[in-house]
Amino acid sequence: MDREKFSLFLQNTANSPFWVLVQKEIRDHITSIRFNILMVIILLTCIGSLYSALTSIRDVASNIDSSKELFLYLKIFTISGENGALPPFITFISLLGPLLGIAMGFDAINSEKNNKTLLRIMSQPIPRDYLILAKFTGSLFVIAFLVLMLGALIFSLGILIIGIPPTFEEFIRVFVYLMMIVLYIAFWLALSILFSILFKQAATSALSGIAIWLFFSVFYSIIVNLIVTAAMPEDLFQANQTQAMNQEKMTMYMRLSPNYLISEITTVLLNPGFRTLGPVTMEQATGAIPSPLGISESLTIIWPQVFGILALCTVCFLIAYAIFMRQEIRS
Amino acid sequence: MSNVIQLSNVVKKYKEVTAVNHLSLKIKKGEIYGLLGPNGAGKSTTIFMLLGLTEPTNGEMFVEGVSPTVKPIEVKKRVGFLPDHVGVYEDLSGKENLTLTARLNGFSKLESDYKADELLEQVGLSHAKEKKAGKYSRGMKQRLGLADTLIKDPSVVIMDEPTLGIDPKGIQEFLEMIQRLRDERNITVLLSSHHLHQVQQICDRVGIFVHGELLAEGDIDSLQQQLLDKNSYQYEIETKESADRVAKLLTSQDNKIQTTIYDGKVHVTTKKRDEGELSKTIIDNGFHLLSFRKMSYGLDDIYQQYFQGGDTLGSGKI
């Protein structure tokens, strides 16, 4: 009986206009050349970094103290190949992830507008927000699927090649990390959807997204460095305290950037040895047991960062939503 | 309910421009109503307001008794809308475009499939239903658009310049299709156009709409009455004898008659309809009547006259 109800519920959901739009969105993405090119690039880089990580994993494993936990799978994600020829998976994904988000959203609304399909959809008996919600949900589904598939690919190749199954904690850590990556990409997706509403031309919207991405991934740290060092007196005359304060100031500014937030999240999740993200004084460090943190402790450390990205994503999407709901349909 | 579409005193202002100015309109069930006006007259704005896509600044409107401002979704369930340029998803086939609309209207996959096939057949696109809609010609897209508006089984169809950019043969077919629709399904049709001849051909009633105001309304005959000098009739008379003499004769018979001579023919304007007296007078007086014709102004002349008037009216306003 319950099962019948459930299948009826599923059927109704699949037939509801919102999910029809989501299905269309997903279909559009996975059949689009743009998404497939990006997917191939991401897959290739992923396999490349995986290959280099797996070839050097033996050395890493032999270097680790036998008393410590291995966390081999976390190493696969984070170590770079011999002589650093290929950067690790996390570097690739945090670089290409935003690009994926931007690529999937930059023409979400303006292409519908330019094609006049917006008018056609809007003259159907559906609430106006269905369209933008479906755009976001559909793209998010595709992104989540792709990222989780990459995780699965790494795990399965790892098992095949090194022959050791991942521990439960490793699995959870990687899973949480991948979800964080999805969230991070969702932020870029929301941003690019916002641009697709603001700008009539798809090219303008794409470029604006890429400009912001470049700004945060390349220039932002330079600018923060410049500002903080300019505001700080010569090292010689500094007390330790002010030095620490400056360091704190720097991280504070850096944390305004989503890229920095995700890098902190990555560090803590994939290196259980990381105990804190800020500077540590000697007093704080004394007496600490040098063992890896449990998953819940790691999560406690990155909680603010997670909410930071979530907030950024929500704010972007809400602005986009509000503008879209108020916009005149006719261009 | 006889009035399917009803607008009373609707005003729409965009910042400084008044797009629609105190428009009142009633359209009956099963009627084909033509909104005739030049570009920028506010036709599209009116249509958008009827669909609940834009809100009027002032005034009330009802579509089948439902206000599109308050319940746009209810209205959109009943109203099919065909824009001037039909937007199609170019990567989807014609049929997929249709099934998408059907499913957004709450039909199941199976129903949508069936309806799409049926309608594609009706609009004559079944040969191209698996073709990508991006490869359709302009006329085909418009026909696909018509199928798209009909797939939700609307009781009202609103068309915004539906024949724009289709070749003459296509237009003819399209207009016939609209007419057939009305006859078969008793659908109420509101269509806007600036092509007088098309409107004249299929519309039961026409509203002439210039700069947000409805100048005149009615069927073609009553429009002529409204727009031309009221209660005056014109006849053209050709005789074997010179036109001067005929003119003199007629004015001497009835001083209310005005005559002008044009191209060797007498044009007579009277206040009352001629019931044979004119020709009788002419023949009785020994003239040889060659032709006698009631002159009616086509909508063409009216249209010209009004749109010229409309322009000066408008340029004074803006």
From TrEMBL, chain A:
The keyword Nucleus does not apply. Keywords: Membrane, Transmembrane, Transmembrane helix. The chain crosses the membrane at residues 33-54, 89-109, 130-162, 174-198, 210-232, 301-324. The keyword Transmembrane helix applies. Pfam families: ABC2_membrane_2. GO terms for cellular component: plasma membrane. One of its GO terms (molecular function) is ABC-type transporter activity. This is ABC-2 type transport system permease protein. It comes from Tenuibacillus multivorans.
From TrEMBL, chain B:
Signal peptide: none annotated. InterPro entries: AAA+_ATPase (IPR003593), ABC_transporter-like_ATP-bd (IPR003439), P-loop_NTPase (IPR027417). It comes from the Bacteria. Residues 5-236 form the ABC transporter domain. Keywords: ATP-binding, Nucleotide-binding, Transport. One of its GO terms (molecular function) is ATP hydrolysis activity. Belongs to the ABC transporter superfamily. This is ABC-2 type transport system ATP-binding protein. It comes from Tenuibacillus multivorans.
